[in-house]
Specification:
heterodimer; A: about 110 residues; mainly beta; seven-stranded mixed sheet; four-stranded antiparallel sheet; 11 strands; about 0% helix; globular; B: about 120 residues; six-stranded mixed sheet; 12 strands
Chain lengths: ~110, ~120
């Protein structure tokens, strides 16, 4: 049973480009969470999704950021028109349908905006 | 507002000595408490959790943590530190009420174990 898979591990984008970060949850997990880890800061919650639904996006910036978790395929965190301040490590976690007491994390995607 | 505090940015201990990484929290209701570790260039790994029951919980790699409700603390401990324990440690909490599954994180404590 593979763990939470995130790709790419490293992503370099020029200012103004789009960044697409992918997260494949563990098998049987239908809940996905995205967190952002900025330099010198801790982890910040961004969004919580279930299949085809956004449950809580209170941590998502209002502009340029979006997330989806389709019925088939990985969850996608999309950042449009990236700026230098978007440079960070983005972590995805997943948890099972019921009995959630811990989330399993991927290894993260390190986004660098140049 | 709900929050988690890790008052020490960095903890230095000598190998073989006991270590403590502190965590205090503020959350309404009964909390679920977690410790995660992040090794350099790696993702977060779960260490241990407190949900209910015995206040002393044991986790991976010989770590343990004690839940203290009166002090709203959940300090991470290990009796004898190893150099390989050097990493970034995160405390996290969530409110167990309703459907809330959002973890609230501390800023992390960098642990350096010196040989």
């Amino acid at each position: 049973n593979a763990g939470v898979m995130q790709n790419p591990r490293h992503l370099v984008r020029r200012r103004g480009q789009e960044a697409r970060l992918r997260c494949s949850p563990m098998k049987g997990h239908s809940h996905v969470y995205w967190y952002r880890q900025l330099p010198e800061e801790g982890l910040k919650f961004m969004v919580y999704l279930q299949k085809e639904n956004i449950i809580d996006e209170s941590g998502m910036p209002k502009e340029r950021f979006s997330a989806e978790f389709p019925k088939e395929g990985p969850s996608i965190l999309r950042i449009q028109q990236v700026v230098r301040g978007d440079s960070a490590a983005y972590f995805c976690a997943s948890s099972p349908i019921s009995g959630w007491t811990e989330a399993f994390f991927g290894q993260g995607t390190r986004l660098t905006v140049v | 507002a709900q929050s988690v505090a890790q008052p020490e940015d960095q903890v230095n201990v000598a190998e073989g000595n006991p270590l403590t990484v502190k965590c205090t929290y503020s959350v309404s209701g009964n909390p679920y408490l977690f410790w995660y570790v992040q090794y350099p260039n790696r993702g977060l790994q779960f260490l241990l959790k407190y949900i209910t029951g015995d206040n002393l919980v044991k986790g991976s790699y010989g770590f343990e943590a004690e839940f203290n409700k009166s002090q709203t603390s959940f300090h991470l401990k290990k009796p004898s530190a190893l150099v390989s324990d050097s990493a970034l440690y995160f405390c996290a909490v969530r409110n167990n009420a309703g459907n809330n599954r959002k973890l609230i994180w501390g800023l992390g404590t960098s642990l350096a174990v010196n040989p």
